[in-house]
Design brief:
CATH topology of chain A: ABC transporter involved in vitamin B12 uptake, BtuC
Number of domains of chain B: 1
CATH superfamily of chain A: ABC transporter involved in vitamin B12 uptake, BtuC
Radius of gyration of chain A: 20 Å
Largest interface: A-B, 45 and 46 residues
Strand content of chain B: under 5%
Distance between the termini of chain A: 35 Å
Order of helices and strands of chain A: HHHHHHHHHHHHHHH
Number of strands of chain A: 0
Structural class of chain B: mainly alpha
Number of domains of chain A: 1
Radius of gyration of chain B: 20 Å
Strand content of chain A: under 5%
CATH class of chain A: Mainly Alpha
Shape of chain A: globular
Shape of chain B: globular
Oligomer: heterodimer
Strand order of the largest sheet of chain B: 1-2
CATH architecture of chain A: Orthogonal Bundle
């Protein structure tokens, strides 16, 4: 038992090294080539006249940090959703959370002329919560409860619904389009620390609380009846998990826009490394999510230089086939 | 026993309920009305009589230009595309025996979109003419459906796996289109984006020359297979017992469905949900036998897209809202309703 735990600790350390490497790559690679020494010196002796230092501190560093935090949040949200629904296909983008958040933000910008970042974040939370609740409700009605097919179909329909309304509003109001366009694309480029700061406390708190819930979730996934029998307050636990999912996914959308499939893919990879014990699975998920999103961002920058691919496209190109694989492998019809 | 009309020919005969004949006639009349009503509605309302005069070449007024170059082609394209999507949807729902199937939901439209965008960004500028766009879109749709079928195959294809995998593929396809738009030159990107929104704005007579033969050749062809489709509804084994050659018929029907959807996408872009809704409305009107159902679905689809397009271009005038926004705005809630109704079967 101890040996197994030791092995997993080593794996965790290895993934952490991978994370450091991808983080460094994110700072070094790009249109302006930067050496590692320059990157280090920009931290301890910042030089205002050096282009490289300015690029690092105002562009590369913020986007690497944002990709890290958003990746970890989405991954943990995905792991929570898969535990909550006991369904391997559950994840924020499948639940229509991205499109829900975007729709509410667009409404806020166009009709309520909201402009402060904090209230936009609030709207994104609200949209994420509404979409998630509608999809959960629609997926759960009927005799067999929450089946994968119903959930996926409801999510697809809700996404299409919100997307078409968003498009309609933006066609009618081009000025509004200008305000939110940067945000619809789903990208970490051009994001600054100012955009992260209002949500950082929420995300940080949610991730920390989430990481502490591993033991309770281990009990929950054995089944509602067993968990109740062991004295767990199942309803309260599920409610808390739902709130955490909405906070994590909502603020991720609020910062970077629509980035899909991280929440779907990562828990499966993490399960491969960490097993099914949620006390290990959750930290592994957070770390792997960060690695994936940071490296996706690096790739997105390099593939068609000097342009950039929206990072949402990168994650979908990797995540889509994975979704097909899981759907093929074994989502039973019930 | 409901009143039935019987037609007997030398090689074939068929029966139709009288009620169904009446309803089909009514739908056809509505489509004909739409042909006249469509050109007369707009910023400047033109009297229907004048529209008819112009259509038959006897009109004189200055409205000739508006009717002939803009509103009439637009009306006809919306009707033809709607019909193509309606037939495509009803065949798909029949073949996979699932009321939730539709070309846009399982990724066929997505495949056509990727191929069309690839064509616009990489080939259209060179010697290859824009008239090959439909070919590209249909090829994309075909490849997509073959891939879908192969991926969903695991000792046979179950409708549930088909739908789930289709949704996954649709996501990859939409990422692919976004990628190409971002990576291409700004001129090509603008063209591609305009096309993706799914609008009938700027419909021309060339579009009609493409759509017309496809719709009027493939719909009768599909009707030939309506008996086979009827038998297929009882399940593969029963259908084979009734003498249906399952593999051949299923493949042909899917082919028809894909070509119809692919052409529709090539002409107007990714307009969603018409192929999903039209068959359901048609089923309420004429019942479940496929002979009448395919015809009714074509007519209903035509009327749906026509209504969406007229609404889109008149209500918010002078802004021309893409018709796809309306079809999705109405279609997605309808989809949720279908999901609710089928909640115990999925």
């Amino acid at each position: 038992m101890k040996a197994v735990l030791m092995k997993k600790r080593i794996r965790f350390c290895l993934i952490f090294i991978l994370f450091l490497l991808s983080f460094a790559a994110s700072i070094v690679f790009g249109q302006t080539s930067i050496t590692l020494e320059q990157a280090l010196s920009s931290f301890h002796s910042y030089d205002e006249t050096s282009t490289e230092h300015i690029v690092i501190q105002s562009n590369r560093l913020p986007r690497a940090v944002i990709a890290t935090i958003v990746g970890a949040s989405l991954a943990v949200a995905g792991a929570f959703m898969q535990a909550l629904t006991r369904n391997p296909l559950a994840s924020p983008s499948i639940f229509g959370i991205n499109q829900g958040a975007i729709f509410f933000v667009v409404i806020g910008v166009v009709f309520l002329s909201v402009s402060s970042l904090v209230s936009l974040m609030g709207l994104a939370f609200l949209g994420a919560a509404v979409a998630a609740m509608v999809v959960y409700f629609l997926g759960s009605i009927g005799r067999d409860g929450l089946t994968p097919v119903k959930m996926v179909l409801a999510g697809a329909a809700i996404s299409a619904l919100f997307q078409s309304y968003t498009q309609g509003i933006l066609v009618l109001d081009e000025a509004g389009l200008q305000d939110v366009l940067f945000w619809l694309a789903g990208s970490v480029s051009g994001r600054t620390f100012e955009m992260l700061l209002p949500v950082l406390p929420f995300m940080g708190a949610a991730i920390i609380i989430a990481l502490c819930m591993g033991k309770a979730i281990n009990l929950l996934v054995t089944g509602d009846d067993v968990a109740k029998g062991m004295g767990q307050h199942v309803a309260e636990l599920k409610g808390t998990m739902g709130i955490i999912v909405v906070i994590l996914a909502g603020s991720a959308v609020a910062v970077v826009g629509a980035v899909g499939f991280i929440g779907l893919v990562v828990p499966h990879i993490a399960r491969f490394f960490a097993g099914s014990d949620y006390r290990l699975l959750l930290p592994f998920s957070a770390l792997i999510g960060a690695v994936l999103l940071v490296s996706a961002d690096v790739l997105a920058r390099l593939i068609i230089m000097p342009q950039e691919v929206p990072i949402g496209v990168m994650t979908a190109i990797v995540g889509g086939p994975f979704f097909v694989y899981i759907a093929r492998k074994g989502v039973s019809s019930r | 026993m409901k009143p039935v009309l019987t037609f007997r020919g030398k090689t074939a005969s068929f029966k139709m309920e009288k009620r169904m004949v009446w309803r089909l006639a009514l739908l056809l009349a509505a489509v004909l009305c739409a042909c006249v009503l469509g050109p007369s509605l707009g910023n400047k309302i033109i009297h229907p009589i004048e529209v008819i005069q112009i259509m038959f070449g006897t009109g004189t007024g200055g409205d000739y230009f508006i009717i002939n170059n803009s509103r009439l082609p637009r009306t006809l394209v919306s009707l033809l595309v709607g019909a193509a999507l309606g037939v495509s949807g009803v065949i798909l729902q029949g073949v996979v025996r699932n009321p939730l199937a539709a070309p846009d939901i399982i990724g066929i439209t997505g495949g056509a979109s990727v191929a069309a965008i690839a064509f616009l960004t990489y080939a259209a500028g060179s010697s290859v003419g824009i008239k090959w766009l439909p070919v590209a879109a249909i090829t994309g749709a075909l490849l997509m459906s073959i891939l879908l079928y192969v991926l969903a195959w695991k000792k046979g294809v179950t409708p549930i796996r088909l739908v789930l995998i289709g949704i996954g593929i649709a996501a990859i396809m939409s990422a692919g289109t976004t990628f190409m738009i971002v990576a291409s030159s700004s001129v090509a990107a603008g063209q591609a984006y305009l096309w993706l929104t799914g609008s009938i704005y700027g419909a021309s007579w060339e579009d009609i020359y493409i759509m017309f033969p496809v719709v009027f050749l493939l719909t009768p062809f599909a009707l030939v297979f309506s008996k086979s489709l009827n038998a297929q509804q009882f399940g593969d084994d029963t259908a084979e017992g009734l003498g249906v050659r399952m593999q051949r018929d299923r493949f042909t029907l899917l082919f028809i469905s894909v070509v119809l959807a692919g052409t529709a996408v090539a002409v107007v872009g990714a307009i969603g949900f018409v192929g999903l809704i039209a068959p359901h409305i048609a089923r309420v009107l004429v019942g479940r036998t496929f002979g009448g159902l395919i015809t009714a679905s074509a007519l209903v689809g035509a009327l749906l897209l026509f209504a969406a397009d007229v609404t889109a271009r008149t209500i918010f005038y002078p802004i021309d809202v893409p018709a796809g926004v309306f079809t999705a705005g109405v279609g997605a809630p309808f989809f949720l309703y279908l999901l609710y109704r089928n909640r115990n079967q999925l």
